[in-house]
Task: inverse folding
């Protein structure tokens, strides 16, 4: 039996060293695939921006008081955040769990499922915060004026990205196979992504749809980014940020539950 | 009595209607190498997962390095090194990067990290391949890296789940040397295997598992003597002849086992007056294994 001395204090939950260990693994891995990941996270929203910006932009010059390019350039920040958080979380988690068995190796070290999920989400959120700025930067090339509020955009992207990362991890945790993701992408992510207000304002939608849009975290992300760039709207924006935080915390716990079920027999 | 690195009492693990581990008792004294021997499906891998709390027991007591599982599992895991049955290295990373990641996961301080990685590279004879990507390594090298990764923090207890499964004999010998060196340094080892030679060579004591519980435990030589005697008579012949021999030996109160090509009559050294033509050979652990775990594979 170990003596009391060698036993030491019971290790706590969400320990920094455990989170660091998982984050280091992600960072080292990232050094081997950052090119492809940066490419896809940059090119996709840029294509949306160009297609909508110039396609629609030639028909409508302003929308809701914004230049259309400015409108879409800020709107697609949320798209970029979604694409660089929910999707990598869903597929990455599934691959690491099912095919590479990475999580088996990590959980054999002094890391608990809660720490593993949290660190993975933090990592993805950080990436999403950075990649989320790309459409905005591209829009600046096409005439979006710089403003101090833009400095808040990576943070908004980070908060939203954390939630979407946890959402993706949860889906991967509950999914029985890769094919299950199709349902989620078609039935959940695509509608949320189109009805977020990235490409067109939701003002002309019926009242009930506008109420429902408040349940769409991506919508809050879109509005927050626009307000960060063009001017804040006080308490409403704080409420939107609060909504993103609640969404993040909720799916974070769900993701931990889903992965514990999956990883611990 | 030496302290126990692992102590299991009455451990039960069920998956639905299947009982994978069925009231298992297991003692691994510190500084020894214990072999968990059993056919596929005997519950060896589940037992290994229970020891890292990647499976939670339905009943029973589990202690690893003095820590109660599953509550204190994280402390126990900090001092354990696990070599999984299935390769789960990061294949797009280099050898050194894989070790670096686990040096962090096992919380080796910044000042000792470099040295720990060098030691692991040396031990696994991968110094020259430190910059090679894992997907460029041979199967044997990958296994060595998997072991080095588990030992980078110099654990008190090493859990090896089928460490040489699927490898050719040369590579297997290399790994045996590595495990033997580890043992001589005083690391406690629990190793599951279904290779009898592996258990016989490396383990101080062996626990034979069948259908989730222990059917025998002790030093290999003692188990052999106890269950198969000193000598075994090997009788070859066509199937009909073998069935006949089996019946005759059974009638004379002798224990037999099938080998596929012959009938082995166990403990012939102690037999009085039983004669049959065959080849005499020393009894071995395989005789005990087949005798105790059954001849038919479920």
Result:
């Amino acid at each position: 039996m170990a003596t009391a001395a060698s036993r030491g204090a019971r290790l706590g939950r969400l320990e920094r060293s455990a989170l660091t260990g998982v984050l280091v693994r992600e960072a080292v891995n990232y050094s081997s695939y950052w090119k492809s990941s940066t490419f896809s996270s940059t090119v996709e929203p840029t294509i949306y921006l160009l297609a909508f910006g110039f396609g629609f932009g030639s028909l409508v010059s302003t929308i809701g008081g914004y230049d259309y390019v400015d409108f879409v350039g800020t709107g697609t920040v949320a798209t970029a955040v979604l694409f660089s958080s929910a999707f990598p979380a869903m597929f990455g988690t599934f691959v690491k769990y099912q095919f590479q068995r990475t999580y088996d190796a990590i959980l054999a070290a002094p890391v608990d499922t809660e720490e593993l999920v949290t660190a993975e989400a933090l990592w993805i959120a950080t990436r999403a915060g950075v990649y989320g700025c790309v459409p905005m930067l591209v829009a600046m090339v096409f005439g979006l004026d710089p403003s101090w509020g833009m400095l808040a955009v990576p943070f908004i992207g980070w908060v939203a990205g954390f939630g979407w990362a946890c959402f993706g991890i949860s889906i991967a945790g509950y999914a029985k196979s890769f094919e299950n993701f199709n349902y989620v992408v078609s039935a959940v992510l695509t509608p949320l992504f189109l009805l977020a207000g990235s490409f067109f304002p939701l003002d002309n939608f019926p009242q009930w749809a506008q109420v429902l849009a408040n349940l769409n975290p991506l919508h809050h992300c879109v509005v927050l980014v626009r307000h960060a760039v063009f001017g804040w709207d006080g308490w409403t924006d704080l409420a939107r940020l609060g909504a993103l935080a609640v969404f993040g915390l909720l799916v974070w716990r769900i993701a931990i539950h889903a992965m514990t079920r999956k990883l611990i027999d | 009595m030496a302290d126990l690195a692992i102590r299991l009492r009455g451990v039960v693990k069920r998956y639905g209607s299947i009982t994978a581990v069925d009231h298992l008792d297991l003692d691994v004294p510190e500084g020894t190498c214990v072999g968990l021997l059993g056919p596929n499906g005997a519950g060896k891998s589940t037992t290994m997962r229970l020891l890292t709390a990647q499976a939670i027991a339905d009943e029973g007591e589990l202690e690893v390095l003095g820590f109660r599982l599953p509550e204190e599992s994280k402390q126990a895991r900090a001092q354990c090194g696990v070599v999984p049955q299935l390769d789960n290295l990061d294949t797009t990373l280099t050898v050194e990067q894989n070790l670096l990641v686990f040096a962090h996961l096992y919380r080796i301080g910044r000042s000792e990290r470099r040295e720990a990685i060098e030691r692991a590279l040396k031990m696994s004879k991968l110094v020259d391949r430190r910059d090679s990507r894992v997907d460029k390594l041979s199967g044997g090298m990958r296994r060595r890296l998997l072991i080095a990764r588990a030992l980078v923090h110099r654990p008190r207890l090493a859990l090896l789940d089928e460490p040489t499964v699927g490898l050719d004999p040369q590579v297997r010998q290399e790994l045996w040397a590595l495990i033997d060196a580890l043992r001589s340094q005083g690391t406690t080892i629990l190793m599951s295997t279904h290779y009898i030679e592996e258990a016989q060579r490396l383990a101080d004591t062996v626990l034979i598992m069948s259908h989730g519980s222990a059917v025998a435990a002790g030093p290999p030589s003692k188990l052999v003597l106890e269950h198969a005697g000193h000598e075994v008579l090997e009788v070859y012949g066509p199937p009909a002849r073998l069935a006949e021999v089996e019946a005759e030996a059974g009638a004379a109160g002798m224990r037999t086992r099938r080998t596929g090509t012959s009938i082995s009559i166990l403990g012939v050294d102690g037999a009085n007056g039983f004669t049959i033509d065959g080849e005499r050979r020393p009894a071995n652990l395989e005789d005990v294994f087949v005798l105790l775990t059954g001849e038919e594979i479920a």
Remarks:
- Chain B has a mean pLDDT of 90.
- Residues 169-184 of chain B form the longest helix (16 residues).
- The interface with chain A takes residues 3-4, 13, 15, 46, 49, 52-56, 63, 65-67, 72, 74-75, 77-78, 80, 82, 84, 86, 88-93, 97, 100-102, 104-107 of chain B (CB under 8 Å).
